[in-house]
Amino acid sequence: MDPNGSWRWTVVVLAVAMPVLLVLGLVLWMTPYPLAEGVALVEDIASPVGPDFLLPTRAYYRPLFHLTLFTAWHSAGSVATFVAIVRLLHLVPVAALAILFVVHLRPKTPTDAAAAIVALTVLMGSPAFLDNIEIPLTYTIVGMAALIGSWVLWERQERRWHTWALVALALLAIGFKEQGLVIVPLLVVAWWTGAPGASRAATLSVTVLGGLYVALRLLYRGHWATFEQDIGYGFDYLSARDATARFGASPLGIYAYNGLSTMANVLFTEPQSGVFSITSAIVRGQAVPWQIVHLSSSVCLTGLIAWWGVAVARRDAVAGWARESRTIVVLIVALAASGVLSFNYSRDRLGGMALVPYAAASYFAVRAALARTVEATTVGRIVGVLALVLLASTWQVRTLRMLDGARKRVADNRKEWITDLHQRRTDYAGRADYLRAMEALAPQGTAPVGVRPLRYPRWALTLLGPS
Amino acid sequence: MARSVPSAFLSALLVAVPAIVGGLMSLVLEGARFTSPADPLFAPPAARSFQEALVDGDADSAYDFIRAGLDPNAPLAVPRPAANGTVERLTPLTLGVAAGRTNVVLMLLSHGARPEMPGNGLALCLAAELGDKELLAILTSAAPMPADCPERVLPERPQSGGVR
What is the ipTM of this complex? Predict the structure, then answer.
């Protein structure tokens, strides 16, 4: 076995992941451009003169995302071409994320490859992944791809073009969504811990750009609502209005709750959007198998990562910063930054930027656990391997659920176009741009689709859960 | 140490098996969807008729009939078993209201059904008679309530596998 086998095991890992990526790509390609959210976005960019989405006057500021859609809509020539471009804008970052993720891990042995395969299922099976591949909302998936791209660069020996590439990737991530700001502290961490490709120039440039962005947002903030959307709280939801009435006078506590919820969702799958739904089901004695699968797989994996992290921290406290200890710090900082940025409300998708280092950490943790089993006694080895196979199986089940969730979106998007046009024509009668865009997009939305959620047998559904 | 190499490989392979199996299964299932799209694993049983789809609340299937050219305002022959098999002619909108299918009514209104047409006025009268506030609100947002609603619109509910 050649431990320095160049790209062989990287190719093996990608080959194992290829079926799921191909199916996901097919499903995303066949997803109708949605009515809800989608048409409003086209309305925003429909005016060919003086797009106002470049000014940070609204609570949501995604200039590069809007500019991309604007360019696609006005240059496409037909609705079909526009929809194809939007789908491509989803497929490319998803593919880039998966490929760069494996390239970053650089598996060189069978053990590395197995750990990388599990890490990829963690990346794709986590709720933040599914929540971030909803067409046409490419916001954070672009940021996630930019993050892993940056990470690949800062772990490699510095080249002259690294600085420009890191700045470009940071701008791309921030320009698509505020969550892209997570890249800024991560690059600082990378530089501070001696990452070979994180130069002082790149770190300073990205930090200044991040600071300018935050200053610009604060300058134009006007009046930001205390709560932009409904929030989860404990075992239930509060409407934005109720939350404002209850916490508006002193929102810091609930802001902290929202931030911690996002962090906990990445680590433990609970809570979801701030609601402890699985915990509630367990407490009421109504938990179903898929909820146990989700909760236990996340808890066990996070425990494994903690076990690995403590060992690495002790080792590198003496030896100095290395790739693994850097991953721990990147994970902690990414979690904290994602938490801070989701102060207003918690959603699964807001943990997307922290999911990347979480999945990377799972690679090292599983790899370390596999290496430990090889050194164990026969009984210990059998138990250890079985435990890891069980862990890998639960995450693979979650990846299959992700695929079915994507299929369900295809069906749901079409259903919207079939049933909701009348209500929209009534509700938005005064918005000519909206109605024009809606009627133009309706044919692609109502066209027959070849993808639906699989009608699994009941026993399989109890494990997979609702898609 | 020589013994640990095959052991390490075997352990790694076992840990990778769930992903290999899961990936292949996904690919095979998607491939099977293209070769056997009507298989129960991929699609529910198709509605036998437009009427069945309306009454069952299957807006997707009902829409497929309209997409294929069926007039959403043309009356349908609805059998009345309790009245010695006589047939009543009801518009799709009226049938949707009678079956209590809000999604079907919304679909019809979204794709060409016009509540102001003579035959469809019965749908508004029926919604009022049934006390279905949601459906009545939807229909009256599209057309005014007819002035001449009959005293009783339907003596019995249409049935085809699923009614309110």
Answer: 0.91
